[in-house]
């Protein structure tokens, strides 16, 4: 079995993720990464910036004018930005799986809160009302839909007595499930680039064409192929985690693709049969990536770009990555902002003068791009918190 070293994996990461050499457009950046994390709206823009010279206006145009990239809830109940052409595969596989999970859970919540004896029937009525309202009135915010549709104004009590429990609006949960199903989509954004205030739209209206989805097997086949092209080599465990799928679905796709087994540090990894050649190591490079960037979140097993003991400093207890600083294919720290919005690099490792100088250049570039805007997050890492204490600012 051919061995792929950690050095080679880092070389692939640098080139495939457009970090050592940037690409020309927003669409190319999303294509290179298969998809971008969009749980925090700012991360989309900052992930693009790390890979292009794009402006806020260019990202806005791709999302809301050209609509070449589209927000979609999919793998692991996470919001992503996908290339438009990949949506049928996503709808037919990962998103459909998530939609089913969300509908089942929401139906139980409706029943347990006494809203209806049949949660499924109740949800079908509410969904019909949402689709009818969007058909009649066009794209609408969640608040506008609640105002028109009294049923959406109700709330559900979840996990009483638990720290994570409380009273939650039914509208956001129902719209999230509808979005996962592909029936509605997050359209134009009412807030700034760092906020999420979408106007919900019927998907076929937003895209200007009927919703078409692949069958599940074809959908997973397309996603596994994209993942291997972007992140390979990786293990079965990496793929199952990233897709939020079953081992059976992943193994079927690997078999149909003729994926080749290779030896990686974690065990058996996979590459596409036309992607077995070594990738030349790039020139030294540095990058500052945002919270939940897809490079940081692309694998479950991350030892080839992390030092032992780094995880508690860079990820929260649920595995969510904070901001990260990269030098030659390894995470070496994070970045934060001071009260004036100036970006500072917080190092967790000694990277030498050249590395420090390269990351200082990236910090200046990011400071200029942000132009005084300070970006918050609900996923600060321990290292970010320590950095904030040093600069008296806020988590990125």
Which structural traits does this protein have?
single chain, 396 residues, alpha+beta, Arc Repressor Mutant, subunit A, 16 helices, 14 strands, 17% strand
Description:
The structure is a single chain. The chain has a domain at 94-207: Arc Repressor Mutant, subunit A (Orthogonal Bundle), CATH 1.10.10. It has 16 helices and 14 strands. The strands form five sheets. A four-stranded antiparallel sheet has the order 11-12-13-14. Strands 1-3-2 form a three-stranded antiparallel sheet. It has helices spanning 6-16, 26-33, 41-49, 56-65, 87-92, 94-112, 119-137, 142-148, 170-181, 203-207, 216-231, 236-243, 247-257, 311-314, 352-370, 382-391; strands spanning 36-37, 69-74, 78-83, 155-158, 166-169, 184-189, 198-202, 234-235, 260-264, 267-271, 286-289, 324-327, 330-337, 343-347. 44% of the residues lie in helices and 17% in strands. Strand 9 (260-264) and strand 10 form a beta hairpin. It is of the alpha+beta class.
Which CATH class of the domain at 94-207? Mainly Alpha
Unreliable spans are: none
Total strands:
14
Radius of gyration, whole Å: 22 Å
CATH architect. name of the domain at 94-207: Orthogonal Bundle
Overall mean pLDDT stands at: 95
> How helical, in percent, are the residues?
40-55%
Query: Between the first and last Cα atoms, what is the distance in angstroms?
Result: 43 Å
Determine the number of helices (DSSP H or I, runs of at least 4 residues): 16
Strand order of the largest sheet: 11-12-13-14
N-to-C SSE string, H for helix and E for strand: HHEHHEEHHHHEEHEEHHEHHEEEHEEEHH
The CATH topology annotation of the domain at 94-207 reads as Arc Repressor Mutant, subunit A
Based on CA inertia axes, which overall geometry fits? globular
